From TrEMBL:
Keywords: Membrane, Transmembrane, Transmembrane helix. The keyword Lyase does not apply. It comes from the Bacteria. This is DUF554 domain-containing protein. The lineage of its organism: Bacteria, Bacillati, Bacillota, Bacilli, Bacillales. The chain crosses the membrane at residues 6-23, 57-77, 98-120, 140-170, 182-207, 213-232.
Amino acid sequence: MVLLGALVNGLGILVGSVIGMKLHNIPERMKDTVMKGMGLSVIVLGIQMAFKTSNSLIVILSICFGAVIGEWLNIDYHLNQLGHWIERKVGAKGKSNVSKGFVTATLIFVIGAMGIIGALDSGIRGNHDVLYTKSVMDGFIALLLSTTLGWGVMLAAIPVFLFEGIIALFATQINQFVPADLMALIIEELTATGGIMILAIGLNLLGLTKIRVANLVPGIVVVALIVTGIYYF
């Protein structure tokens, strides 16, 4: 089953979120410390990813052009509006973190090369091991996030499943048209560019910044275009 890996990843997020919500009664001091610990961990992960680049100029250009496109499309605003719409539909009252949980978790789980590599493996070779591993990691992160951000984290399972599922379904076509060495280069620079975005999420979790990370996401597409252009020209 081509979509098995993506399905398991989505279920991992759901299970982690449910367990985390069961722990919502933990003291506020503990929640605050957990969130700051998550922020620091995400920052370290982002830095490690960012150093994967072999050409920092590609990362810089991708982030810059991606930011221009993202701000023009106002992705962050629309993503948050979707979260607020969900809040209204479920009748969330008072101070609700549904939108923040949905947006933050979606960005953490989708940005990065692991999902792409895993989805390609699922679609081309029927090997779901990478996505199985990612599901465990995402489940644990979802558990921690949901203790402070609530059930909005659970909703991230939907875009994760769609993102990985679409890649898995079209993996054979991608493999036919994209040379293996080019794909390796794209994944390398995509990992580094995604690392910058993950770093920004970590800073936001610590409350140090309010970076509109979703508006940087088009940089992932820009990476592929730049690397492809350099490869062929």
